Amino acid sequence: MQLTEIRIAGFGGQGVILSAIILGRAAAIHHGEFATMTQSFGPEARGGACSAQLILSGTPILYPYVTRPDILIVMSQEAYTRFVPELKDGGTLIVEQDLVRLADLKPNVRVFSVPATRLAEELGKRMVLNSVMVGFFTAMTELLQKDAVMKAVAESVPSSFRDLNLQAFEKGFDFGKQLGCTPLELPEAEHVVYSQE
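Request: output the structure for the sequence above.
Response:
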């Protein structure tokens, strides 16, 4: 796997951090790749800004912070406004279509949108919108194998919510596959390398 920088952002309570944990676990444990994840929160526990930086690579990762994301996943307008300028030229933007209005985009950005909140509500719980987003991401990028991500979902959520989260993942994955887009071909990542002194 080539080095891929991913930022996931939204507001507290949407499962932003859990999404990154699931994808990182799928890559590191079930794919045998390298993964790093860092996170940041606003001063509020719920409803404040929240983001996670995830780097996946087939080789050791020397610097754990995203510099120019190849893929940006946003679940709130505030996250979109704050982080879309960082998106790499030719990068991929995945948005929650009911919560994010697109504006001021670079012309060569690939955009995919999913009504994750609505799909989660169809299952009776808005709180699983993050699993819908993870499923959609998995379908659209094909960076990680579906079964590996599903295992990571099952391992990362409380057992009482396991089935619901797996259903949400499937909803997002199926929605992505129905769009009929080809998997993303990411350009070679440019990553800052610091000396190992």
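Strands lie at 4-11, 34-41, 49-57, 71-74, 92-96, 110-114.
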